[in-house]
Amino acid sequence: MAPSSDASVGEICAICGVSSEEALHLLSMTESHSVNDAVDLFFRTQENGGAGASGGGGNVSPPPPSSSRPDHNNNTQVGAIHRRSAAAAAAAASSGAGAAGPAAGTNNPPNNIRHAPATVLGLGVHAVVVLVRFTFQLTGTVVGLAFRLPVLRTIKRVCARALAPPPTHADGAAAARAFVANFDSKFGTTHPRFIADTYTNALRQARRSNKFLVAYLHCARHPATDSFCRETMCDETLSAFLDDGFVVWGGDVDAPEAFALHNALNATTFPLLVALHLGGNAGARNGGDVVEVWRRVGPVTPAEVIQGLAEALERFGSRLDADRQAEVARDFDRQLRAEQDAEYERAAAADRARMEAAEAARKEAAEAKAKVEAEEKAKADAEAAEARRVEELATRRENAAAALPDEPAVGTESPGGAKVARILVRTPGGGRKERRFFSDASVGDLYAWVDALPTDEKVPEAFRLVTSYPRKIIDAKNSEQSLVDAMGADVVSGGQVALFIEDASE
Fold this sequence. Notes:
Elements: H1 6-16, H2 20-28, H3 35-48, H4 72-95, H5 120-148, H6 150-163, H7 169-187, H8 199-208, E1 212-218, H9 225-233, H10 236-245, E2 246-252, H11 256-264, E3 272-279, E4 289-297, H12 302-403, E5 420-426, E6 432-438, H13 443-451, E7 463-467, E8 472-474, H14 483-487, H15 489-492, E9 496-503
Parallel strand pairs: 1-2, 5-9
Antiparallel strand pairs: 1-3, 3-4, 5-6, 7-8, 7-9
Helix pairs in contact: 1-2, 1-3, 3-4, 4-5, 10-12, 12-13
């Protein structure tokens, strides 16, 4: 059986009004297996009175050679004339059944021709009938031409491509693996190494390998597919040839990705082998340009495939050489850019390190300077504070010494009749200081005297006076209190009181 497609069979059925089996028979009787030759063969058979195309009983002659065959437009006109002739013959046969035709070689008109009526009404009716008949004939002719024009095929391909679901990478890879598994299970493992990945990735792998991609589109429903797979695709010589010089990808047209490739290649029948080249910049976003360098459709022997691919390599091998040179140039550019980028990064890193070191040194110097300045300022502040303290202490002691009443003489009495008492003070510097006070003198006068002692006696700034025995603190807060009240009459009456100086800040 000659290879065919459902679209071709459908066109023959629509034009000739035959069944699918008869249309397949017509296609098998032509050399080119085209719709035009099959339709021409059918109408030539009808004109010759044979029934080979439809009845199967007559002999159908093959079509003329392709060199003497009319072109597409002439075929369209001849097909239309044949259809009109066949329609007229069928109408004549149905209307003149049982009536004898004219004698051969005579000029008498046939008996089934109707003459136009002579009345006006009859002329009008006849005109309407002729107009309707002409309209139907013209419509049939236009429809017949439309079915045979390539525009219809293009429209159908565009519609099928638009309605087909877009294949995804995941689905494409799964479909490729399923195709390889089904091929192995049905035809064995002796076949080219099919890439079990998407068509796009297979193209890129071929580009990276500097090889052409041989794509095989598989249609399990086609009658020639099984024999082609067993006799051609499973041939050891062809398999070794393809594995050595090409990247091979296969896909079932029932899968979305293979179906999309089938539409892109404008394929009309199976089996189909095609060699593709991914040109341009394969690393670009659009993936480069895909160019078809070789194609074989229908049953073909392994030797023919090898010869065709060898010729394609000889003819288009310069594309691979150009790709290799372009890839080497791109690799050199990439390496050069990478080295330049690395050198730039090293220089930038060194600059950053120098800047960071300089910044760190600047910060360290600034911090050290700020620390020295802070220490100097703190020292100056401390010294100033100490100087103020010493000055204030000296001023206070001078004021206290100036405010002291005169020291009374021994044996005298105060205006209030108080006797003189001797006060002995042991200083922190280890000295002993003595002074006479009236017993009715105030505690404040006693503290003022001690506070006015020389600096070498090391009297604390805050101090308190304590009697030796019994121990009793003479509180400076009671500065208006008299010595008798503060220390007791029995202590003062003895004539001499011994006191100790203690640091009040402890």
